Amino acid sequence: MQKAGLVELQAVLAVATHQSFRRAAVAMGMSPSALSHAVAMLEQRMGVRLFNRTTRSVSLSEAGEQFVARVRPALSEIAAAMEGANAFRDTPTGTLRINTSEGAAMMLLEPVFFDYLRRYPDMRLDLITEGRYVDIVAEGFDAGIRDTDNVPQDMVAVRCTGDIRFLVVGAPSYFEGREKPLVPEDLLRHTCIRSRLPSGSWYRWEFGKRGEERRIDVDGPLGLDSHRIMIAAALDGLGLIWTSESSVAPYIADGRLVPVLEDWCPYFNGLSVYYPAHRHMSAGLRAFIDLVRERTS
Fold first, then answer.
1. Which of 50, 71, 116, 168 is most buried, most CB within 10 Å of its CB?
2. Which terms in the Gene Ontology molecular function aspect does this entry carry (predicted)?
């Protein structure tokens, strides 16, 4: 039998991990057709079906389970050996895959992500932004960046921002002919641009003042799950939004957005980058963590 290539073995592990050819292809940076072909060629040469495929699901066959159980540790050793050799380079090389939210990515683009690529030109940064929280290990990410309070307890977390304040803002045109809200409950009489959570429910805006907390279920004709589109809608005068101060600071400075309820707008714990404690840390991830610590020191 012709020997299996490393890419084919990695493809089998990716499909086994993600239980999806499409998600596995994204994780490996391949097209779904190329990945499917690699798996099929390996199955053909081995004369064994490694996966049970239907139109809706992919699962390991009995032979596939035994094969993956033996191959996974071997490939981990190969990856560790390659990474160990990489440590002798002057600069790290490879691909760093990070899962985060759109808002967090925008907040860290210039001070962290762009600087990282400038410092380490041999690195590739694969940044996936989505609202849902994912298992970064199961989905093939090196690290995640989320609200510090929502980092899984079994992960190592490193703060990458200070505390973050959220504000309610609207365009001057929106406030024409309207009284500005003075307490959170006044928002119930205003048009608000709602933010949809990954679960499908609407986010309730959070406020606090001298130990008193309020959560307001705002209403309005427009609901979004994109941070940038919410800001664009607010700039157009369509309604009020609840967003991080840093994301709208330039628009507040030039008068295109006006903050309200500032005395009710609290600070929250900032963002943290997190990664699994038990996994060998690649040189690329170590360089990223070092940069984060430098920025927050």
1. 168
2. DNA-binding transcription factor activity; sequence-specific DNA binding
